Amino acid sequence: MADGVFVPKHALVAHKLTRLRDVNTPSPLFRQLTKEITQILICEATADLPTVPDNRETPLSEFSGESLAQKIGIVPILRAGLGMSDAAHEMLPMARILHIGMYRDEETLEPVYYYDKLPTPPNVDLALVVDPMLATGGSAIAAISRLKETGLKQIRFIGLIAAPEGISALRGAHPDVQIWMAGVDEKLNENGYICPGLGDAGDRIMDT
Prior knowledge:
Helix content is 33%, strand content 30%. With 208 residues, it is of the alpha/beta class. The protein has a single domain, classed as Rossmann fold, CATH 3.40.50.2020. Strands 1, 4, 5, 6, 7, 8, 9, 10 and 11 form a 9-stranded mixed β-sheet that branches. A two-stranded antiparallel sheet has the order 2-3. Helix 2 (27-45) crosses helix 3 (82-91). The longest helix is centred in the N-terminal third of the chain and has 19 residues, at 27-45. It is globular, with a radius of gyration of 17 Å. The mean pLDDT is 91.
């Protein structure tokens, strides 16, 4: 795998991803699997974050613990990213939620930007961008470019399924952004969809 791209070799991820891909998996189960895989990926993607000493007391004695040193923001790319943001927020309840809205034009395959509520200057140190699919990479590249415009320096991307073309495009545009994915598939088809993929993640999450 390319530098800066991480795909956990985890039996639970493989098991859950198989069921996520299944065309017969209903939306409630699809949402639950998305949540569970996201939480595993959040653990992986935050394993190396800096901490500071945090001295507290247990019911029995004092102890020397640790707390995260940075302010974290979770950035779902609307709408499909919403299927991952709640799961990420459960793992990082202290994190702020920042929204970027865009969709892919089905004719041009280019991202169409329509909404954001990003503070300038940023009020977080690290942004975790979440979006289930990294296909052409256009939406991820545009979202990360917008975050950098606000002054953010530390950004990581977390998704479920990627195509090699999307990874290459994102790494080319933002080589400083690390990528965590549950799986990397074979290719994009002629319509710009990941194959074998899992279909349209937004439609399957929202049951539309």
